[in-house]
Amino acid sequence: MTSIMGSAMTELQQNVDSPEEISSAVARLRQAVSDAEISPNDVINVFDSWAKGLDARELDDIPGIVFLRIWLRRGTLEPIITRELGSNGLHGGWTEYGLANCKAFPIGIVGHWPAGNVEIQPILSMTCALLGGNAALVRMPSGLVELTRRLMEKLVQSDPAGVLTRRIFMAAFEHGRKDLHEAMARAVDGAMIWGGEEAVLQVRSLPFPHWAKIAVFGPRISVAAMDAGAWGNPGEQESWCRRIARDVWQFDQQACSSPQVLFLEKAAGQSTAQFLPFLQRAFEAENRAHPRRTIPAALTSAICQARASWLLQDIAHEAIFPKGPDWTLLFGSGVDLPLPVQGKTLTILEVDNLIDPVLKFDGNVQTLGLAIADPEKEKKLAWLAGTRGVDRIVKLGRMHTFVPPWDGVDLIRPMVRMVRHVCSTD
Amino acid sequence: MNQLDEKIDRILSMPPYSQPPDDRQTCLLEMLKEELDYACQRHPGYKNYIQHWPVDYKTAGQVSDLPYLPVGILKANPPLSFVALDEIKRTLTSSATTSQLPSRVVLDSPTSRRMTKGVVAILRDFIGPFRRPYLVVDTPGSKGAENTLGARGAAIQGLQPFSNGTTYCLGLTDHDDLTLDLDKLREFAKDRRDTEVLVYGFTFILWNHLVKPLMAENVCLNLPNARILHSGGWKRLQDQAVEKTVFNEQLARVFGCSADHVIDFYGMVESVGVIYPDCPEGNKHGPVFGDVIVRNPLTLEPVAAGEHGIVQVCSILPTSFPGNLLLTEDMAQVIAYDGCPCGRRGISFRFAGRVPKAELRGCGNLQSKR
């Protein structure tokens, strides 16, 4: 069993050194797609079993593992399939739309270029393509190879028939190997590209076939905002702060959905500074529960630089931080978005009215995490944020919840062909 | 300030490397606390930073608990200053590539004077106290204008107290490229076989504009008593893959001296007056008026002997700008906290390159506006 699993893993995830190795893997993937159609339900069957396999203590250290377990469950994925692929989409059936019937067909092989900062992103991206019945060719960021291998071993165990594993190839190679990136691009029918501006531009410039569908999830930042009714409510302050801390901690605040700034709306007779001790306690608690294991020295430098710049810049500025680089709260006022620091560095800005910072959004804000006591105000903010380019408006504590639409687009539908059939006998 | 000045001068006059580490810790802690008091009175923004530090510096029990600034803060323009404009005697700028902003530090007269004294105290321990012919492997223009001074100029000038006559052996071509003036160099070397001479140049300049041309022409200057100091780092020689031992051997060969006469020293304009020459064991040491703390990037606590971390430099010399406690962008390995076989007391360490450039990564990497 172990050796079979070992060989399946070898087949599925490899260090690649030549375009020919990619061509060979692509031939296998294309054969797998043409051999048999699989419905989203078939895929979910394996995913559900995989989710159970991932519920193992030895994987608890993987950032995002809890989220991945939830994402792979039937209860999460079924509603997404139904919404994106139609009411009969789950079983691969045709769904009636007026006089026509529509059904999702795979586009073929989907190439994935995940970012290196979100540990589970190669897998999340891959699952979107598989749910559409496609094969997945994944370029592995070098820092995530080992971690992904541990997760994929559980898939191999959950899929002894190879329903999904024969449709997957994860290629590990140096970021600078243009020939291998190009070989991947030439071989795929679609691509899901994630990451920073430079990475996204590089991948987009690769020689994809003219028919390839490209979905880009580029660099964005995210913002949190609370009105006075929320942050000033003594019964809820602690729980809101726990949620904010959770959103900041995930992915070391390096994801596009990570809040970099929290806007607090002023309240008559109350100082927003009162909220800081609650945030401090929540950050301390989150740090005890989920301490960092490693940090690049460059990030430590950037955190120290942010602390000093903030406090030197204006004597009205305040900050709370421990001796180490574990987390940082920078407090002041203003409606402009500060440049992101990452590394659990949250800038808290007091504003007269939450409308003011939202009016400054320029299309770079992906997610607006809200805690708003007044529902009418929330509706107004959501509308305004939508007009200012925000793609997700969610409750604080759920800023990373990976539910489509993401970045304003669906996750499965972009990588399928929706075939329309109007019956000739009608 | 006068009292503070006197105290600094008293420490500057002590032998730089003979104080036991505990005594040095006590002495530096007291001095640095006084200087923090003074700085807080002079700069409200700096005071704001100090007040928010997680440890109250007044009750801190060790130098490593005192509030330090990241060196990047000194790239501010106008520069951070604790003195009035009319007290500024000189502004030093760090070397910076076109993509980086240079650091700027302002010197008043007392800080400027201490800078010279500090460098002299350190170098006397390595090359002896007397004056000697001084060969600068650079152009006369590199010493800088009257009010501003770059890193090369600061280093050249810092060695002047050991000179009884200075010769610059590089010139500029019509295209402003550096070129070796071989005649001047030969003239300097003539009849000095038995004389102790001092040579200084930036590391990459020495290699590219002196060693390589002389090696190509198989020239030996026949200066067996040359003491060759160089600084500026190895980054610009990385693409030529020049190892330190090869560098030392080739340099020694063109001068006709022993390779152990070549001394690499680390200095940064942000920490004026404190330089870190290699001892015969290949280690660097902090002087009595300064120290080095190597911090673990994960915790920012000092690392154990043998471990690597980010370098913090400490110095009691500057009072005109916040350069007393600086977290640098360099990495180092602590060799030992005392007991270097060279006999110098206190920490011994070795540099291990620059902290990689701080860059935001991944899908949250947002630098430019849409």
- pLDDT < 50 runs, ≥5 residues of chain B: none
Q: Which CATH class of the largest domain in chain B?
A: Alpha Beta
Distance between the termini of chain A: 55 Å
Unreliable spans of chain A: none
- The number of distinct helices of chain A, counting runs of at least 4 residues, comes to 15
**Beta-strand residue percentage of chain B:** 15-25%
Structural class per helix/strand content of chain A? Answer: alpha/beta
Structural class of chain B: alpha/beta
Strand content of chain A: 15-25%
Which two chains form the greatest contact, residue counts included? A-B, 57 and 42 residues
Helical content class of chain B:
25-40%
Roughly how many Å is the radius of gyration of chain A? 23 Å
Largest sheet composition of chain A: 7 strands, mixed
The coarse overall form of chain A would be globular
Put the structure in a nutshell.
The complex is a heterodimer of chains A (426) and B (370). Chain A is α/β, with parallel strands linked by helices.
Describe the structure.
Chain A has 426 residues and is an alpha/beta fold. Chain A has 2 domains: 2-218 and 407-422, Aldehyde Dehydrogenase, Chain A, domain 1 (3-Layer(aba) Sandwich); 221-395, 3-Layer(aba) Sandwich (Aldehyde Dehydrogenase, Chain A, domain 2). Chain A has helices at residues 2-12, 19-35, 40-53, 65-71, 74-85, 121-131, 145-158, 178-187, 197-204, 228-231, 237-249, 276-289, 297-313, 355-360, 375-387; strands spanning 13-15, 95-97, 100-106, 109-113, 135-140, 168-172, 190-194, 213-217, 221-226, 259-265, 318-320, 328-333, 345-351, 365-371, 392-395, 416-422. In chain A, strand 7, helix 9 (197-204) and strand 8 (213-217) form a beta-alpha-beta unit. In chain A, helix 2 (19-35) runs parallel beside helix 8. The longest helix of chain A is centred in the first third of the chain and has 17 residues, at 19-35. The relative contact order of chain A is 0.13. Chain B is of the alpha/beta class. Chain B has helices spanning 2-12, 21-42, 44-51, 109-127, 151-158, 182-189, 203-216, 244-255, and strands at residues 69-70, 90-93, 104-107, 132-136, 148-149, 163-168, 170-172, 178-180, 197-202, 226-231, 262-267, 275-277, 284-285, 290-295, 308-315, 325-336, 348-354. The radius of gyration of chain B is 21 Å and the shape is globular. The mean pLDDT of chain B is 90. The chains are: A alpha/beta (426), B alpha/beta (370). At the A-B interface, helix 13 and strand 11 of A face helix 3, strand 1 and strand 16 of B.
